[in-house]
Specification:
Layout (H helix, E strand, L loop, with lengths): L3 E5 L7 H13 L4 E4 L4 H4 L9 H12 L3 E5 L9 H4 L26 H18 L5 E5 L15 H15 L2 H8 L26 H29 L3 E6 L8 H5 L4 E6 L1 H8 L4 H6 L8 H12 L4 E6 L17 H11 L4 E4 L25 H16 L9 E4 L2 H9 L8 H14 L4 E4 L9 E6 L7 H9 L1 E6 L26 E5 L6 E3 L2 E10 L6 E4 L5 E6 L2 E4 L1 E3 L1 H14 L11 E5 L3 E6 L5 E3 L2 E3 L4 E5 L2
Helix pairs in contact: 1-3, 5-8, 6-8, 8-15, 13-14, 16-18
The structure holds beta-D-galactopyranose (GAL).
The site of beta-D-galactopyranose (GAL) has 11 residues, from loops.
Length: 632
């Protein structure tokens, strides 16, 4: 596969005369793709039922005449102001019961049926008009589902749809009462209509009520997306895509992805380090201009799975962003490094956000490839360099990874609902295991419950999977030479009751207790420790593979399957994974703090995320340096 570059462009922000100049410059910079349209609803339909497509016709012609391939976005993330006249109750409602007002974007509630009809209408019109346009080779649905915390809405519309969803799931109110355990605190219901949304309760709502509302809210995103894909498929054979975000777990991306051809995500390494990292000041200072060395790669691997092998970076940070607490400039070379790293992980396209910095509105401080005056910014220079790199690279072919980690959105909702310890966060746990593996220099695949069994791995990790139905456990075991599950895996039934047969690896049920740990209470193990969470099992000696320094069983197992009783810190995780990998003859490395490697069938890529030069195996890489070795 020969990777390509692109950018995000908003013709409605610039005078028509400029479009051809921009298009020409994009092509000269080595870009092949341009994404347009995803926020343009107020210009496409300025008044309800009055459409103006001519400007978009001209923009598409101008861009395609220059030789660019186009991604056309549906504009449903930004309903215009008039929509509120038609549907005053279409606004999403937050947990405190407040409407999320008009004046930015993503203010709609996924459950509002009238708004869905309006979306279907604009998508149908766009699809009819442009569905067979040869330059429009990809359609993007909406924009960043879930961004700005917009999946969950406590609106009247959501309540009505939640009742329907619950009736379909449980059929009878008795079954719901049993699943939710409503006898506890006299919460029993006699009819579905009595059920409210799980916000504004005095203390926490019944956990299965909360979990079901999260499941429902995710399903609403899936069906909202599907409404659009079904229309688009009737009018176009182009690929369908959505641009997901970093560290958003509020909906099941695998389920949305099943209705699309390609996945993509919006990679803002510096914004994410500032805005959504669990790591402290020292780490942030060290990587302030480079981004976390594993955060991008994690999402590349996650979205490769969501796209069933096909994925893009739809928005690549090109310089400082505007939305994080601090917005430093990337170290020179990082825009190129991020782009090449995506390509090393199999991205078909890396597209920069945005073409030109805009001198008005919310994102005035957000860099583009061009500065507001239209001159080349640092981002453009690096994109051009990357275009040359791609010429030299030729085709990049992915190799199958020896290791995989299971990622499961429902498990994220489960532990949000009952974390049991303030620091228990599912994403963080999975991400830390991922980081430990990556520091050992191995390629990693992320897999979903649904895709287990498509490939056999030397080592498969399944941390904190809420429920392990027997069939899933069997599939995990037969898809791996070595399996490591836990902590918390299999600890709940699908109705979120305690599963007393955990850990399901054994015929016998062992006495168990669990505890969450504040930082000062961690259990030392060699150079590392168990932190955040520990499970005590009273197991026979012969099942204990490893103990904490104080003698508590830490890894227990039989045959090729093991259970990890706690949350390992990075040192401990690295040590455990290294031992397991060596058992199955997978070679590991000991990478310096900022160095990462990705091996494909055709090339080996080395990336220096550090702000200082790194010397490894006799090779020196400057800060932000990339070294590419040809394998064949
Ligand atoms: C993304 C979004 C873009 C733009 C960008 C700024 O989340 O899709 O429209 O707002 O962030 O970094």
């Amino acid at each position: 596969m020969k990777p390509e570059l692109g950018c995000c462009y908003y013709p409605e922000h610039w005078p028509d005369e400029r479009w051809a100049v921009d298009a020409q410059m994009m092509v000269e910079a080595g870009l092949s793709w341009v994404r347009i349209g995803e926020f343009a609803w107020s210009r496409l339909e300025p008044k309800s039922g009055q459409f103006q497509f001519e400007w978009l016709d001209r923009a598409i012609e101008t861009l395609s005449n220059a030789g660019l391939k186009i991604v056309l976005g549906t504009p449903t993330a930004t309903p215009p102001r008039w929509m509120l006249e038609t549907y005053p109750d279409m606004l999403a409602v937050d947990r405190e019961g407040r409407e999320r007002g008009f004046g930015s974007r993503r203010h709609y509630c996924f459950s509002h049926q009238g708004y869905r009809e309006a979306c279907a209408d604009i998508v149908e019109r766009l699809a009819q008009r442009y569905g067979s346009h040869p330059a429009i080779q990809v359609w993007q649905t909406d924009n960043e589902f879930g961004c700005h915390d917009t999946v969950i809405s406590f609106s009247e519309a959501a309540l009505a749809e939640f009742h329907i969803w619950l009736k379909q799931r449980y059929r009878t109110i008795e079954r719901l009462n049993e699943a939710w355990g409503t006898v506890f605190w006299s919460m029993e219901y006699s009819v579905f209509e009595e059920i409210g949304l799980p916000n504004l309760t005095v203390t926490e709502a019944a956990p299965c009520h909360e979990l079901d509302f999260k499941r429902f809210s995710s399903d609403q995103v899936v069906s909202f997306n599907r409404l659009q894909t079904e229309i688009l498929r009737r009018h176009t054979s182009a690929d369908l895509i959505h641009n997901y975000m970093g560290r958003i777990v509020d909906f099941d991306h695998f389920a949305v992805g099943n209705d699309l051809d390609v996945a993509s995500w919006d990679a803002y390494p510096l914004g994410f380090l500032e805005d959504r990292s669990d790591y402290g000041e020292e780490w942030r200072a060290r990587f302030a201009r480079q981004g976390d060395p594993d955060f991008q790669a994690f999402h590349h691997d996650l979205y490769r799975a969501v796209g069933r092998g096909r994925w893009w970076v739809m928005e690549q940070q090109p310089g400082p962003v505007n939305w994080a607490p601090f917005n430093p400039a990337p170290l020179d070379g990082m825009v190129r490094l991020w782009s090449l790293e995506a390509i090393a992980h199999g991205a078909e396209v890396v597209s920069y956000f945005r073409w030109r910095q805009l001198p008005f509105a919310q994102e005035q401080h957000h860099a583009g490839l061009l500065s507001p005056d239209g001159r080349a910014a640092q981002g453009l220079l690096e994109a051009q360099q990357c275009a040359q790199d791609l010429q030299a690279l030729g085709a990049v072919e992915q190799a199958k990874a020896p290791v995989a980690i299971l990622f499961d959105y429902e498990s994220a909702w489960a532990w949000q609902t009952q974390p049991q310890g303030a620091s228990f966060d599912y994403f963080r746990l999975v991400f830390e295991q991922y980081r430990a593996l990556r520091k050992l220099g191995v390629n990693i695949d992320i897999v979903s419950k649904g895709s287990i069994g498509e490939h056999r791995y030397k080592l498969l990790l399944a941390p904190a999977v809420m429920s392990l139905e027997p069939d899933l456990l069997e599939r995990l075991e037969s898809a791996s030479d070595l399996l490591l599950i836990g902590p918390r895996s299999g600890s709940r039934t699908p109705n979120f009751h305690t599963d007393t047969s955990q850990p399901q690896l054994f015929e016998t049920v062992f006495q168990r207790s669990v505890e969450s740990l504040r930082a000062s209470a961690s259990y030392p193990v060699g150079n590392g420790s168990v932190e955040h969470w520990f499970e005590h099992y009273d197991v026979p000696e012969e099942l204990v593979v490893k103990r904490t320094d104080s003698g508590l069983p830490l890894v227990i197992g039989r045959g090729q399957s093991f259970y990890l009783c706690g949350w390992p810190d990075e040192e401990l995780a690295k040590g455990l994974f290294e031992e397991l990998l060596h058992k199955v003859q997978v070679e590991t490395l000991e990478l310096p703090i900022g160095l990462r490697v990705r091996t494909t069938q055709t090339h080996r890529f080395w990336f220096n995320y550090d702000s200082e030069a790194v010397v490894y195996r006799g090779v020196e890489l400057p800060p932000a340096g990339v070294k590419i070795e040809q394998i064949q």
